[in-house]
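2024-03-11 09:14:02 DEBUG pipeline.ingest accepted 1 chain
2024-03-11 09:14:02 DEBUG pipeline.ingest length=168
2024-03-11 09:14:03 DEBUG pipeline.predict start
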Amino acid sequence: MPTTESGEFLIVTGMSGAGRSTVANALEDLGWYVVDNLPPQMLRPLLDLTSLGGGTLPKVAAVVDVRGRNLFNDFPDVARTLRQRGSVRVLFLDAADDTLVRRFEAVRRPHPLQGDGTIVDGIRIERDRVAPIREAADIVVDTSDFNIHQLATTVSDLFAEEGRPGTV
C-alpha cells in the first residue's frame, strides 16, 4: 500500500449500507486511526497532519460518503489530486440493491438520499453519484454476501501487516 512519509492513508467510501462502519471498526481493531464522515475537502489537511506527525499516526483511514451532502460532490477531484501524490488508496464498498434495501429495512433508517421517495430511489441516486468513484477505486469489495464478521475478516486479510490489497 502506498505510504505517506509517516505511514499508510486509506479512504473508505461506497454505498450507504454496504458496511463502511463495520470496516471502520475493523480497521481500528487493526490499529488504524479512523476518521468517520469526513468532508472530502478535509482529506488534504488530514494527510498533511499525518505526514507532520512524525510517525505518531502510521495508519490513517478516512470514511467519506454521501452523508457529506453537497460537500461530497468534490470527492472525485480531491481523491484524484491526492492519489497523484501516490500516497492514498481508495477502498470502495458495494452491495447489490436488494441487499442494501434489506439492510435499511432491518435497521429502520431512511437512506440518506431518499428524501420523500423510497429506499430504492435513494440507492439509485447514490449509485449514479458514486459510479466514477467506484470505477477509480483501488480496491472494490462487494459485501452482498457478507455478515459483519465476514466483512471484518476480509478487512483484516486486506489491511493487516501481511495483507495484500486487491479486489474481493
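2024-03-11 09:14:41 DEBUG pipeline.report The CA atoms of residues 94 and 142 lie 5 Å apart.
2024-03-11 09:14:41 DEBUG pipeline.predict end
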